[in-house]
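Tutorial sheet, problem 5. The two components below are modelled jointly, 969 residues in total.
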Amino acid sequence: MNNHIEAAVQEIGKVLLGKEEQIRLSLCCLLSRGHLLIEDLPGMGKTTLSNALASVLGLSFNRVQFTSDLLPADILGVSIYDQSSGAFSFLPGPVFTQVLLADEINRTTPRTQSALLEAMGEGQVTLEGETRALPEPFFVIATQNPVSQSGTYPLPESQLDRFLMRIELGYPDPAAERELYLNPVNASQVKDLRTCLDPAQLTAISAQVQQVHASDNLLDYLQRLVAYTRNSAEFAFGLSPRGALSLLLGAKTWAVMHGREHVLPEDIQSILPAVAGHRLQPTRDFAGDSAALVRNLLANVDVIGG
Amino acid sequence: MKIEQQIPRNALFWILLAQFFLLLPHIARLPGWVFVVYLIAAFWRIMVYRGQWSFPPRWLKLILILAGFFGIQASFGSMLGLEPTVALLLVAFALKLIELCERKDAYLVIFLGFFVCLTEFLFSQELLIAAYNLVCVIVLLTALIALHQPGEQKLQFAPLRRASLFVIQAFPLMVVLFVIFPRLPPLWSVPLKSNAAKTGVTDFMSPGDIAQLSRSDEVAFRAEFVGDIPRQSELYWRGLVFSRFAGKTWKPVGWQDTPALERRPQAPAGEMGEGLEYTVIMEPTQQRWLYSLRYAWEHSRNVTKTGDFRLVSPITVQDQYRYSATSYPGAALETDLSDWRRELELELPVVGNQRARTFAVERRNQATSDLAYANDILDFFNEQGFSYTLTPALLGDNTVDDFLFNTREGFCEHYASSFVFLMRSAGVPARVVAGYLGGELNPVNRTVIVRQFDAHAWAEIWLEGRGWTRVDPTSAVSPDRIEWGLERALAGEGSFLADSPLSPIHFRNIDWLNKIRLRYDAITYAWQLAVLSYDSDEQFHVLEEFLGEITPQRVMLFILAAGILSLLPMIGVLLWQSRSHLPKEVRIYNKYCHKLAQLGTHRFPQESPGDFAERAILVHPQLESEIRQVTKLFETIAYSGQPGRVSLAELRHSVRRFGVLRT
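Model answer (structure tokens):
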């Protein structure tokens, strides 16, 4: 199974150069059946990454460009009166797919952002009193510009909490960027990526993740981390139980990706910035951003205990 | 006022409650207005707290203080003595409430409260009082804790729990201090209780005295026998011997009036018979004489014998007094009567009671011997319509005549007194003995409880060859009194403890209540035995037993050892709590980290075992295999959930061997 995952990483690496860590994290997120939020400036390869992810997983893919005048119906779908049959027929929106790329999700109003809440939380949408199931599996990969950019509506905490991970891509290193200048990646290249994992394998990986062992020592470490966020003065609020569960889930998937049947503290440390970063906020007294906050958290909690 | 100087409302409540608890036991012995002062002061303070009134002005406080002084003076007639001083303290304690505004005032009240707590022991050291004072201490501690929780707006019970915990934790220390702390003589002299005239046998006897005593159910003493307990009718506790009769009143012979040779008892002649061994714990009497069965020959060191075969204490019995003795009921007392004593025990007033004197001489002449004469008189009491009552008619000037030939009703002292008078008139040496008869047997701990209503007077006559022989004229009139005690003897009259209808003695026939009463009495006895009688003497013995010879070094060592011993459990608990939450493998791994730290490589808290291993290998490439092995073992045990594959012992072993060869 690891070969397939490794192959997927390599495959995406062909179109997103020098970003192996981010690719692994985003794969880990999808293999954990979690939604992914990619935050960065325009032109950093957010869309490329999401397209590539959908391709290597062999899933159907829809893209919605979020704008300030986008309405919920534009995403979910709408009923139209059919004159020939004299009845309303439902026209499914772009949400009815396996991978939904919500591009620049913070450009739209909170009303439209919230239209995704049910879909992300429960894998279904309710329209005009009728509940419709979404295809299995269903992932939302959202991208957003940094909140400081103009014309953005920051996602509310409840919406942020629905994303298992938030990753930042960052500038590529000089070598990778030079490679990019020489061989620009075009859209068809992304479409033509080899499918590395089929749906059956996805299910198998999910089952494998369930089997991963988390020892008492590891849960102690997890609880020490969570307790630190709740008791330390630099955090505006602590990590919720859902946040803690997300950490554990991500760490288990990470362990599977590294061919282990148990979780090590390194697993938690690797995925913690991505899983906890968007769930934690510094108090006003703290002179740093949430990344610094997570670094503090990791540095101050003893892995072994005692 | 700054917030840290304010008194939290929670603390105010606890202070009020503590004061109430502290004043409550004093309510019976102090004038009621002292308590009223407290209620008014507390009400005032509550009104201040509610913001309705303000603190009283200075002139009013001054007036209140003066009024308190004058009130005490008026109530007690004096500012001296124990009760007035305690009352003064309590008034001041209560009045402090109305100027309780800053934290320092609260400290004063609370610390004064601990002192007030002590004053209670000046009056009573009973078990219940001790337990009650413990409650007071807990409430005071609660107030002290609450005082350090600023901002508490409502009544909180959390400090009460904490205070109780403190008291429990202090318990071992208290026991150690109780055993070893020197019993210092009082630093200042405590004024005597003004109402110290306790009920009890007095050193003179006139008709009606003992009848008066019989109205009280107070405990006189408790006795514990080593072997079998003799029958109740044999328990004649001798306390005083009255040899001098002044027409109405009987008095003992003073020690100064006794010739030097007569001050010690004669050694018993002939067979002593079986001995009775017993220990007595006496309630304070403010007197010196003690109670013993005849004939107490051996006794504990704190007691001396007198010429009339009694035991006395060298000092006034002001606190509970414990002594032991062995008595020989079968031994003959003073078979050789000295001239001085014969003269003393035959002496009668020159005039008075003429009729009785003639009667005595007549009867003696008819009888064959002194003993026959005594029996004749007893028969006279028995057959001539004499009756036994707590409320006899008053007697005239010639008390004996009046009693023998007119009223013919009386209590034991009437019978003993007139019997001895008749004996002496006929030339038989005789004397009145006062003490207690019988007592209640407590089956719980097999002690005999002797109460004031067991007070009794009887006679002793001296017979040629037999010495002093006990004759109890009351037995001729009311055998019930001897066999069953006073309650049965007065059953028809209904005058038993008529003045105290609520006395628990009345409820003896309610079985469970009686069981509780006896059980409590047994606990009281144990309390007296173990705690109250632990004086400097006893302490000396105990320490001697522990230490052999008592030297300052040994005492110091003992104190240290006892202190450490009492602290050990706490230290143990703390250690256990601090260690137990770390799993074994983590403790072993920490040792490995410690070894690496000694080599100069410290693990950062955020470093996982794997990361640390990588870094350590960079620094110590020669240790690579060992580091990898320990890390792998630890990761397997701590995280894999399949520790069966490697054992803890393996990890311990490799950590123990780690670095040994190379450093």
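Marking note: Chain A has 13 helices and nine strands. Full credit if you identified this.
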